[in-house]
Amino acid sequence: xxxxxxxxxxxxxxxxxxxxxxxxxxxxxxxxxxxxxxxxxxxxxxxxxxxxxxxxxxxxxxxxxxxxxxxxxxxxxxxxxxxxxxxxxxxxxxxxxxxxxxxxxxxxxxxxxxxxxxxxxxxxxxxx
Length: 128
Hints:
Number of strands: 0
Radius of gyration: 20 Å
Helix content: 40-55%
Largest sheet: none
Order of helices and strands: HHH
Strand content: under 5%
Structural class: mainly alpha
Number of helices: 3
Shape: elongated
Distance between the termini: 53 Å
Low-confidence stretches: none
């Protein structure tokens, strides 16, 4: 077995599967969105992982597009009362935001690890 670094596709698949970005075997989460302290398989410390709001923004934009498009189509075609809208779209909003959030967050981590992404730093330069 060779120690070649994973391709971007392999890293993305590890992320979607919620697995360790380095080995692809250990679990990334200890809870629903709570990170484990380190990989059980290779021992990678997950302290470097900071998602910020990135994954949530992508999920919200995707879910918003799906729910708004569906709500507009139903409103124009059937014109149901408001309680029907609430009964239809509240569960859909929960499903389209909560289910993909875990995978999107771990995909974000895997790609960040793959590309060795770090926080931006300003370079101090001497005035010339």
